[in-house]
Model the fold of this input.
Amino acid sequence: MLTIKNLHAVIKADNEDSGSNKDQECEASKKHDQSNHSVYGGASEKNKEILHGIDLTINDGEVHAIMGPNGSGKSTLANILAGNANYQVTQGEIIFDGVDLLSLPCAERAVRGIFLAFQYPVEIPGVNNMYFLKAAVNSLRKYRQQSELDAFDFMSLVKAKSKIVQMDEKFLQREVNVGFSGGEKKRNEILQMLLLEPKFAILDETDSGLDIDALQIVAHGVNSLRSAHRSFLVVTHYQRLLHYIAPDYVHVLAKGKIVKSGGKELALELEQKGYGWLEQLSMESGAQEG
Amino acid sequence: MSDTDFLSMGETVAASYVAMVSSCITQHCYVVVLLNGKLFAKLSDNFYRLWCVASLHCNQNDNTTYIEIKSDAIVAKPIYILSLITTPTLDGQLSKLMINVGANARVGVITESICLNLRDDAVSASTQIIEMNLQQHAQVDYYHIQNSERFVKHATHSHSNVQLKLNLDSSSVMTTNHLICGDVSAAKMHVEIIVALKSPGAIFVSNGLFGCNNQQRLQVKVVVNHFADHCSSKVLFKGIVADLAYAEFIGNIVVHAKAAHSIARLDNKNLLLHQTARVKTSPVLEVYADDVKCAHGATVGQLDESALWYLQTRGISYKGACEILLNAFMQEILHNLPLFLREEVVLHTSISPT
Done:
């Protein structure tokens, strides 16, 4: 079970790209918020708050979808859960199976069962994909005090799993994500998820840049892992992915807050109405608080 | 202690170091040990098959060892030459190794030099010169290892200079791989590689990896002279600098006026592991001939933050992630090494990103 309580977070100032529109947007929202809240714990003047108090509980076996417009903080939330050092949590807590997640380094979160499927998987030149996958699986096994898999056992495991995502074996011999197409990268992400069998998987816009076939394959990979012990947080812009991965709950994130939650029918409603009306809703609620 | 005491002590120490040379090397190579520039006969293999095609001669007066590979010889196993200097003096001990490879001969050579300072009270300096001459159509695979750390675990306060002079005659082919690790703690090291492509058609390919940490200072200098036409050279050196160390790479390719149709490439890529580590690189081309194809480049960078983060989200520790990326950086050079050398040399370094 994962519980997020009143989570506030900032992006660290030295990692920002001040030229982009997105940041100007954040700038505007920050000014707006400063009038409402007097203190931001620990955040320096230049840091920009992106999440303004998120509360969310995800029970074992549940699939939650997070939707929302660009710049609403969806990816930030995903990155914070996985432990990206570019973001700083200024307030609130995240409890995962009774453990304070924020106190754990990134790698330990992963071996404890948190998995982030990247929106933009990172290319690592010079590192063989198979070698990378084996290193990942073996660090997990080491944490669980299991013996490391040898090359032969690992090979048969990875071959079986790559069939599920219909990934050609030649990609196992290439460098990690280097020269992979968008679809191949995402399949590689899902392959990693299948190998690591996480307890809590976050899919950060895994559907972006996928064609219909690849989308189905990725969804099939995710669905094959669904169980009563495993939960998912699916971050997406579109209802399309949720058609294949049916969520139990849908939350809408706007300007760093969850403004509406509902069942999977909410996704369909959003598809028709867009996000505009919800943003309006959030501003109204913000005004009431003030 | 008198000088003779040091000499006998040197022999004992040398014997213990030779014992540390792994069975891998002794299995795969002909082993020749030079102690202070002289053949250390006790420990050198007396390979009948090697000396059928080669001859070895030591000049005791000027600390020079000559190895001659006869023309048309094909040497079955590489020759591993361990050169130990145990009694360096303040003014610099000189030892010289001359290898002459006859026409059409093919041979693999591995040299490893270690400078030990047995006199703890003084900073010592040593100079070693390795000179190799390739006759027409000779082919040499040369591996040069400079990694005292794999033998010596304590500071020796030595300054070591190593000079390689490689002369290539027409249509001879030489590939070299250099592994250079800075000396343990507060030492200075200079490695100079001077190549002369003397006659048409010679090919020189050189790959190198250098690393230093703590407060070491390391200078690697590569000079390739194209004296004749239709020669080609390719040089790639990669450097890893950690802690407070300072490394300097000076690359210089000179295409002389007569060397038309030369092909040359010079690259240097560096990785800085800490904020305090420094590297200076100057890849220089000097071209005095027309109609040549030359290129040069240099990069300095750090471990990729996003790659580190990606690896960590897969459960790999920060240290493990750093090691994976470091290995990836080195792989371009290391994959050229025969397996027995790769395992032997690479694992013995304390350069670490964490």
